[in-house]
Amino acid sequence: MTRRFCLWLLFPVLTIMVSLNAFAADMPDFIGLVEKYGPAVVNVQSTMTAENSQDGDEQDVPEIFRRFFGPGQIPRAPRQGNRVSMGSGFIISKDGYILTNNHVVEGADQVTVRLSDRRDLDAKVIGTDPQTDIALLKVAANDLPVVTLGDSKLLKPGQWVVALGSPFGFDHSVTHGIVSAIGRGFGRDQQYVPFIQTDVPINPGNSGGPLFNLEGQVVGINSQIFSNTGGYMGVSFAIPIDLAMNTVDQIKTTGHVSRGMIGVQIQGVGRAEAQSLGLPRVGGALVNNVTPGSAADKGGVHVGDVILAFNGMDIVNQADLPPMVGLTKPGTPAELSIFREGKTIKVPVVVGKPPADTGQLASNDSSGDSEQENALGIVVDDMTAEQRRQLGIKDEGVLVSKVGGIAAQRTPLNPGDIILMVGRKPVKTSAEFNASVKGLKSGDSVMLLVRRNDTTQFVAVTVPKTKDAG
């Protein structure tokens, strides 16, 4: 009896031990991965002399770095002496080519690479591309350990990944996690990069280091974190290695990066925009500006079109389009799937290349005194010839002088904005604008094409229902 009782006690213990052994057998071989590929990961140290370093306050830092590092957490150069920054990188060829982030070496007078065997080598910056945040370095050495490159297009959310780098200067630190999402976009700052989002612990100093899959292949370059504190908060981002190597190949062959462009300014399509346009689903890229003479203009793309696909690849949101176009070689024929006035049509275009200088438009702070309101609660004025000249506008557009009423207050409109179109119809005078919105009834929604400084964007405005009034 006693012996049988003891066996019953041992049974749960044996079950737990078997389960733990099975779990250990299924665990990824992080140790083997690091031992094999860790020697190809390097520390990158960039030095900027005092006279060339920028020593301003936080307001001088690009918005993207304020967003990712948080207020008060951006590294600052001392007022005396040189500025030194630390990052990571990895060796992609035995003869000394190294990949890292542009922001790790940007503005540096001297770049030093520390190998895993503790050798410090001077590095030459072969080329950089701020748009993708890629930099290619070269050191004078041979028979160096190299990484194996993978295919970032095969990544799936939930997949294990491993990061190696030098957070806070601690060389060859290893962290791991999973892919949280793919194809993340960050607007105009880095519109050509469909970032890989992970939950891998990344901190300042990891920038430029490799992101591995479990086969030991590099699938991304750790680039940024989203943080309010300056440290890791569970969200980090990597540049897909496919995109990075496209940039590297162009730097090596031509010395610069050339990317495709079709000449449209786009925005997302939310529920209100989809309803106003009669689009059966939320998604796609809404065209709010077409550059005259561009590929899109020549192909017949119109303001108000919604681009649903590029060369058969679906556009789920507006951030999907720029990387697709950017990676297409200028001069390549392509096809856009476009939703226009209730129909989906195919529009052929020949991909062009970006102009050398896009320029800036003057801002406008003037306002008029017309008080003729309408169902939207938006008061507009005619524009003067001088205002049009400053903004580079020919004869279209009216100036918003007052935003009142529930409908207008629920939108991001401000006095000083320029309304160029109501729906798909251009407006040139306040009388035309008021006539265009006169027939709107309770619950109706209309799209306004609005220009603010150098940005043009569609805004959906809905006339409040009777129960919403007041």
What is the compact description of this entry?
With 470 residues, this protein is α+β, with helices and mostly antiparallel strands. It contains eleven helices and 25 strands.
Please give a structural write-up.
The protein is built from eleven helices and 25 strands. It is of the alpha+beta class and 470 residues long. A six-stranded antiparallel β-barrel has the order 1-2-3-6-5-4. Strands 8-9-10-13-12-11 form a six-stranded antiparallel beta barrel. Mean pLDDT is 80; it is low at 54-79, 357-372 and 466-470.
Keywords:
single chain; 470 residues; alpha+beta; six-stranded antiparallel β-barrel; 25 strands; disordered C terminus
Principal-axis shape: elongated
What strand line-up does the widest sheet have? 1-2-3-6-5-4
Q: How many separate helices? A: 11
Say how many strands there are. 25
Estimate the mean pLDDT confidence.
80
Distance between the termini: 82 Å
User: Which percent range describes the beta-strand content?
Assistant: 25-35%
Structure classification? alpha+beta
Estimate the helix proportion, in percent.
10-25%
In this structure, how is the largest beta sheet organized?
6 strands, antiparallel, barrel
Rounded radius of gyration (Å): 27 Å
Poorly predicted residue ranges: 54-79, 357-372, 466-470
